[in-house]
């Protein structure tokens, strides 16, 4: 709303008239005395305020000369009432301390206005006592200055007289501090100084003690109710963007927020009372003085901004030192790498060997205490037994909810729960990112373990059955070739994930946190570490198709394992039957019935061998097709920052074993190679 429009709206539309014969003619002195009351929003004998029409009206007959001047002068009363109404509605903190501070400044301006009216009244009285003329024209000359100032005040009230409060209200006033109108500029400066004192008190208390004393909900930081300690770091306190004063930079807001959260975290979660750092002590002195405001924040590089920055840095360092020394943060990072990211290889191998017979069972037969005992046994069987007790006591087993059809592999997880402050900030346990990555790595370890088992069993079977049961030689050869292919591709994926991805990213992460002096640096490095291993291990939403194709390869391995186990049992049975038969014939001789039964059994077994060979061929063909699709997708998603994926594809496709029989794969690999040069 501009001032011209405000003036038009404020000017009385007409002078109320009754019947002409009832009208009285009044002199200038009488109308002037009534106008002096009107200037202060008070009704008089000749001028009254009409509540319905929201304007002053004259109850006497005016001549042409008086009418235009009185209408002009009555605008002062109308503007005064706009300002006075805001003062009455916002005094005594009715709508918050900021609005009350603005109302106080407006009241001071009106007090100056009242003092000017008082002086004017004395001049009028002295003039008439001395029989000197004081006309409406003289009154108009006096009103010029105040008419402009009251228009400025009323315009300001119209701008702020809404549901805005606190910092949002200060943001409306702030632009006036840089306007070209000297009066409006000075008035806005005074308002900002007075109105931001409560915000300064709240801010200092938040940064010094980590507590919000915001009785009128005016600060830009608010507390969410019913948030437990585990969710405190991310959810208990939030920033209300609408309440941030316009002259606050985003960096200042974030630093204020973080500083108070650090102190609150130390007091409520760590149960410690941090010593006052130099900057926080200065902020405490500002709070205790009670007369400081945020007006200096309007200028870039203010002292308050520097103090906020230093307080944030000092508080962040205090929190990081507390987490490192009292709660062993870096030691737990190492524990997470060893156990949740399966970096402790001998422990993982021991655990798999112990669990394998039990994980193949139905999930309904498994209990937490049983797995806990197995975990303790695996620790004692490996170098994990020499780990710090701080790490080992946080390591536990977690069983996922089961649908009844799941096996142990589907519900088993390791859990690394530190509890307390570390869990509040980093969320190590639960269904977080470490648990998701563990599920993927555990599946990869399982597939590698299954292939190793099949490889050992095949070699043993070849040695024991090769001459006695010659019918299975070709079947074992086909199985052996397929297992060799699977071992090659799975081992390459396994090596890539554990070595190229996790170990490489871990070294970068460890280097970053060892140099870190601020908690934000550690949090950022930790988030980047997890983000990188998820991205490079193709476990993100963007690489969902590639991850799905990898799981298909794993499912083929498990399918082969199930079929191979059944065939192994059949072969062992046939091997033992032939040994027993040879021993019986050697001792008792043979006859037609024995020979006939033996022949029928061999024919039936041969049918099983043929069936098994056909299944192996189907699985082999299916696996090669899925692997080629996986390689194509792997090559396509590899980018300049993920050259390792292309290297993985080359290692799996060693000597172009798969691409030489697939032109599309050859073209895809050739194109990517050229584009990377």
Task: Please describe the topology of this protein.
Blueprint: H1 3-10, H2 28-39, E1 47-50, E2 55-58, H3 64-90, H4 97-129, H5 136-160, H6 166-173, H7 182-195, H8 197-209, E3 221-223, H9 232-236, E4 237-239, H10 250-268, H11 278-289, H12 303-325, H13 329-340, H14 345-359, H15 368-381, H16 389-392, E5 395-399, H17 408-411, E6 412-416, H18 420-426, H19 433-465, H20 473-515, H21 519-536, H22 544-588, H23 592-637, H24 643-652, H25 663-676
Antiparallel strand pairs: 1-2, 3-4, 5-6
Helix pairs in contact: 2-3, 3-4, 3-5, 4-7, 8-10, 8-11, 10-12, 11-12, 14-15, 19-20, 19-22, 20-21, 20-23, 20-24, 22-23, 23-24, 23-25
Structure commentary:
This protein is mostly helical and 677 residues long. The protein has 25 helices and six strands. The chain has helices at 3-10, 28-39, 64-90, 97-129, 136-160, 166-173, 182-195, 197-209, 232-236, 250-268, 278-289, 303-325, 329-340, 345-359, 368-381, 389-392, 408-411, 420-426, 433-465, 473-515, 519-536, 544-588, 592-637, 643-652, 663-676; strands at 47-50, 55-58, 221-223, 237-239, 395-399, 412-416. The strands form three sheets. A two-stranded antiparallel sheet has the order 1-2. The protein has a two-stranded antiparallel ribbon with strand order 3-4. Strand 1 and strand 2 (55-58) form a beta hairpin.
Which key terms come to mind for this protein?
677 residues, mainly alpha, two-stranded antiparallel ribbon, 69% helix, two-stranded antiparallel sheet, disordered C terminus
């Amino acid at each position: 709303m501009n001032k011209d429009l405000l003036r038009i709206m404020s000017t009385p539309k007409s002078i109320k008239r009754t019947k002409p014969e009832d009208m009285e003619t009044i002199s200038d002195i009488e109308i002037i005395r009534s106008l002096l009351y009107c200037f202060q929003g008070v009704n008089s004998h000749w001028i009254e305020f009409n509540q319905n029409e929201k304007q002053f009206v004259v109850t006497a007959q005016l001549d042409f000369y008086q009418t235009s001047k009185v209408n002009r002068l009555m605008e002062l009363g109308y503007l005064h009432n706009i300002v006075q109404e805001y003062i009455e509605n916002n005094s005594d903190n009715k709508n918050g301390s900021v609005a009350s501070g603005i109302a106080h400044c407006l009241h001071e301006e009106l007090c100056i206005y009242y003092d000017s009216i008082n002086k004017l009244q004395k001049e009028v009285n002295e003039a008439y006592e001395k029989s000197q003329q004081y006309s409406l024209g003289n009154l108009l000359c006096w009103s010029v200055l105040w008419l402009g100032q009251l228009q400025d005040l009323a315009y300001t009230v119209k701008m702020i007289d809404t549901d805005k409060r606190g910092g949002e209200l200060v943001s409306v006033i702030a632009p006036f501090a840089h306007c070209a109108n000297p009066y409006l500029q000075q008035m806005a400066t005074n308002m900002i100084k007075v109105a931001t004192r409560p915000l300064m008190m709240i801010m200092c208390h938040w940064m010094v003690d980590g507590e919000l004393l915001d009785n009128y909900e005016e600060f830009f930081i608010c507390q969410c109710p019913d948030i437990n300690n585990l969710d405190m770091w991310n959810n208990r306190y939030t920033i209300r963007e609408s309440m941030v004063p316009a002259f606050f930079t985003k960096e200042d807001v974030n630093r204020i927020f973080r500083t108070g959260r650090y102190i609150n975290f130390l007091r409520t979660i760590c149960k410690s009372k941090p010593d006052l750092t130099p900057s926080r002590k200065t902020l405490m002195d500002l709070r205790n003085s009670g007369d400081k405001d945020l007006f200096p924040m309007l200028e870039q590089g203010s002292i308050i901004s520097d103090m906020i920055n230093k307080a944030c840095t000092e508080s962040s360092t205090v929190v990081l030192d507390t987490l490192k020394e009292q709660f062993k943060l870096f030691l737990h990072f190492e524990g997470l790498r060893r156990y949740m990211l399966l970096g402790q290889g001998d422990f993982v191998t021991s655990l798999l060997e112990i669990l394998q017979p039990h994980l193949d069972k139905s999930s309904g037969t498994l209990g937490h205490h049983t797995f806990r005992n197995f975990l303790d046994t695996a620790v004692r069987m490996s170098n994990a037994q020499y780990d710090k007790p701080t790490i080992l006591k946080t390591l536990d087993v977690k069983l996922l909810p089961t649908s009844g059809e799941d096996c142990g592999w589907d519900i088993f997880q390791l859990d690394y729960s530190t509890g307390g402050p570390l869990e509040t900030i980093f969320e190590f346990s639960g269904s977080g990112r470490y648990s998701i990555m563990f599920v993927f790595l555990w599946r990869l370890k399982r597939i590698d373990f299954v292939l190793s088992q099949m490889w050992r069993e095949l070699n043993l079977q070849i040695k024991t059955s090769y001459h006695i049961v010659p019918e299975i030689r070709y079947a074992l050869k086909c199985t052996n070739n397929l297992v060799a292919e699977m071992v090659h591709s799975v081992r390459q994926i396994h090596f890539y994930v554990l070595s190229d991805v996790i170990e490489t990213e871990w070294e970068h992460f460890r280097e970053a946190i060892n140099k870190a002096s601020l908690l934000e640096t550690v949090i950022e490095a930790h988030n980047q570490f997890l983000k990188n291993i998820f991205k490079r291990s193709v476990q993100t939403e963007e690489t969902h198709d590639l991850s799905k194709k990898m799981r298909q390869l794993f499912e083929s391995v498990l399918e082969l394992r199930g079929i191979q186990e059944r065939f192994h049992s059949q072969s062992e049975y046939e091997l033992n039957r032939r040994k027993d038969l040879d021993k019986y014939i050697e001792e008792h001789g043979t006859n037609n019935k024995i020979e006939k039964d033996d022949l029928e059994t061999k024919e039936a077994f041969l049918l099983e061998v043929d069936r098994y060979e056909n299944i192996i061929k189907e699985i082999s063909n299916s696996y090669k097709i899925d692997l080629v699709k996986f390689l194509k997708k792997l090559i396509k998603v590899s980018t300049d920052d993920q050259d390792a994926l292309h290297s993985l594809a080359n290692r799996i496709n060693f000597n172009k074993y798969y691409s030489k029989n697939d032109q599309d794969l050859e073209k895809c690999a050739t194109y990517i190679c050229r584009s990377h040069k």
